[in-house]
Specification:
The structure is a single chain. The chain has four helices and no strands. By secondary structure, the protein is an all-alpha fold. It has one domain (3-123). The radius of gyration is 15 Å and the shape is globular. Bound molecules: protoporphyrin IX containing FE.
């Protein structure tokens, strides 16, 4: 797959990941049963796997020896961990809501890293 195709797929998956995360976080805060549906539980894994695989493939092409790529990888892991608190591990709706906001902040940090190619993100 060409680099430009990987980049398009990567950014599309990133947008879908955030959109779908916000919807699921809302369902989690209002304790909706929709969250238990199989498709709703599987889709994020598919989207996030595409996001990560395309990111890794591009990183492989341009080389891993750049700080911002590692910053994105670490932040992606954080986004997923904090995301699981927002969607299922947080015990109260307030905890889950705060974790959801934190996950969105981490996501925008990553977008800033992507656009500036600098680990300082929007502050660079
Ligand atoms: C939530 C996670 C992520 C988001 C929201 C995200 C977002 C983006 C965006 C918006 C771009 C396009 C930048 C531009 O138009 O110049 C991009 C490019 C890129 N991303 Fe990600 N990314 C994420 C995770 C990752 C990870 C984990 C890796 C590496 C393992 C990665 C590697 C790359 C690379 C190599 C590019 C291409 C940069 C270029 O050629 O300009 N991304 N990412």
């Amino acid at each position: 797959m060409s680099y430009i195709a990987l980049k398009h797929l990567h950014t599309t998956a990133a947008a879908l990941s955030l959109l779908f995360f916000i919807i699921r976080a809302y369902w989690s805060v209002i304790e909706s049963a929709v969250l238990q549906k199989k498709a709703v539980r599987i889709a994020p894994h598919v989207i996030d796997t595409i996001l990560l695989a395309c990111g890794l493939a591009m990183a492989y092409t341009i080389g891993f020896n750049q700080g911002w790529i590692w910053a994105k990888l670490v932040a992606l892991v954080l986004y997923i961990v904090v995301g699981t608190v927002a969607i299922k591990r947080g015990k109260t709706p307030v905890t889950r809501g705060i974790a959801a906001l934190a996950a969105v902040v981490i996501f925008f940090y990553i977008v800033g890293v992507a656009l500036t190619r600098n680990a300082w993100s929007w502050l660079a």
